[in-house]
Amino acid sequence: xxxxxxxxxxxxxxxxxxxxxxxxxxxxxxxxxxxxxxxxxxxxxxxxxxxxxxxxxxxxxxxxxxxxxxxxxxxxxxxxxxxxxxxxxxxxxxxxxxxxxxxxxxxxxxxxxxxxxxxxxxxxxxxxxxxxxxxxxxxxxxxxxxxxxxxxxxxxxxxxxxxxxxxxxxxxxxxxxxxxxxxxxxxxxxxxxxxxxxxxxxxxxxxxxxxxxxxxxxxxxxxxxxxxxxxxxxxxxxxxxxxxxxxxxxxxxxxxxxxxxxxxxxxxxxxxxxxxxxxxxxxxxxxxxxxxxxxxxxxxxxxxxxxxxxxxxxxxxxxxxxxxxxxxxxxxxxxxxxxxxxxxxxxxxxxxxxxxxxxxxxxxxxxxxxxxxxxxxxxxxxxxxxxxxxxxxxxx
Length: 396
Ligand code: PMP
Known about the structure:
Largest sheet: 7 strands, mixed
Number of domains: 2
CATH class of the largest domain: Alpha Beta
CATH superfamily of the largest domain: Type I PLP-dependent aspartate aminotransferase-like (Major domain)
Number of helices: 14
Strand content: 15-25%
Structural class: alpha/beta
CATH topology of the largest domain: Aspartate Aminotransferase, domain 2
Bound molecules: 4'-deoxy-4'-aminopyridoxal-5'-phosphate
């Protein structure tokens, strides 16, 4: 029966890598996943920074059930009043600086990045973008155009022309950008897929200054960093500047698919003018998804988890001391454990799985192991995970 399920997965679903982990999950709860054999796995990646409040939080499940019993999809985005959407938008805006006061919900991170890029072109009447080397902003063709890494993008060219790449924290390189053509600068505060590398506050402030001086929009991709992962609700709060567009995804939907781009009301108004319907989505802001996201945000804000992020980071750092660990990059509960090479990381992930720890790797940091657990992970769970990771490293 189990082998049959695995075969059905492998034979009927498009595969994206030659060796999928193929863990057969049948249940998830709190900080754990359960497989078809009843084995329990401590989740050290939270669906890649999605399940920040853990799995199946009772308040999130109740919100989903309630909304599903009232109405699900009724009409394309923006035509009908749907309280779950507008309540969630209001809640988000209330938590953000005054200039981020208008929210467009979509279905995924990539779609939200695409919407932000369209907004930048529409309001600036310019065409070019600035993006960072080795950034990942999504896999559809807009965000893919922002990917400097040829291995992943070459096969899909032509993509959007006129994207200028700069290295993270290379302030001097910004002087060489043709700013008169730049509609927007898109960056993460932490380059997640590069192994959780932080942009310096000076670099982000320079981007802000260049955008201000040249009428370009500063777009922050907080799809991974949002909702408490770095110890602040949003990572831009560490840098002391506010972007023109904030792009959210992943934890935004509380375990359901959702993206959003949030900007100034006057800028966003241009999406309903020349042309009208400047951005269209059927399912964006789906009421069940919005209800889930709103409930998850409430759970997060009522908890002490964001305040505990820094302490939990230090427990990981104190516990993961071993000759095979060269460094631990990142901040908060968004950490990259640097090992020898890609093969070591893959073996480590497999051996961790055997011990009941679920982890992952990074697109552009092949020698790093990903740690981005639910923020609800306990100190005891972190300590146990560290002990077990050290055991794995000893065995290798
Ligand atoms: N930006 C970042 C920083 C991401 O990590 C991701 C997803 N890993 C995306 C954008 C794309 O989001 P999605 O997969 O929902 O399209």
